[in-house]
Fold this sequence. Notes:
Layout: E1 14-15, H1 33-58, H2 67-96, H3 102-145, H4 154-169, H5 173-181, H6 185-213, H7 220-232, H8 236-244, H9 260-269, E2 274-275
Antiparallel strand pairs: 1-2
Bound molecules: fe (ii) ion (FE2) (2 copies).
Amino acid sequence: MKPKQRNAKKIIHRKPNFQIPQDIEKYWLGGSVFKTHFLNSFTLIFPIGERYFIRSINCMLKKINDPILLTEAQSFIKQEAQHAIEHGRFMNILKNQGLEFEGSLKYVEFLIEKILAPMNGEALNLAVTSGLEHMTALLAEISLSENFLKEAPSSIRDLYNWHAAEEIEHRAVAFDILSECHPHFALRVAGLFYAYVLLSGLTAFFTAKLIVEDGKIFDKVIWTDFFDTFIFKEKLLFKAAGIFVNYLSPDFHPLNEKIDHLGKSIFKQQNNFASSL
Length: 277
Ligand SMILES: [Fe+2]
Ligand SMILES: [Fe+2]
């Protein structure tokens, strides 16, 4: 389990300024309650996750010997911080729509920051971060290749697609730090399963919570959309499982997944960002 030898990968800190209208339609993803709240749940949990990633990587900086990897780690931190800012801005719009989630988010933040992270320790936090980065890159790959947000308003689509593209761009950073500082295959695998439980549990919880609060949990169309998204039409479950298991191969490296073109095509479309490399 070695970091991949490579030239410096340009990981750019972009500062977009997405103008999502305050009066955006409540069910902004093609009118689908399920799909909208599924995507909203990511906006709620990403900033907590990103603060966790930043802390996990930040405490490794002084232990990274490879100067290229160190530069990438610093850029990774800047990108994740920007993701938290942009999703935080969208979260404020969701709050203004009357969605209730602040109390639950505080509990989740407390659980992660005050209980799980200190209990895990540095090595496991890094392995979980690497596992979560595999899962965000997986979601980014599926979302961009399937154009999952095609029915979303362009401002929201730009936000999610930009985030997806940057997840693809920095997908190897946490993995390479783990490989350099704690190169244990069992730890890497444990981190992935921990990450899976955390991300799928929180996504399911917040999606269900938002749907329940809308009083729509027993609507047939919610369940039709759910099964179509995961099993029958978009087949998210099968696509995600296929990519998920790649991580379990001892030879796996994120940069072996040839998905850079997906991110690059988004950056090309969104070429109006100020950059502060
Ligand atoms: Fe992110
Ligand atoms: Fe990331």
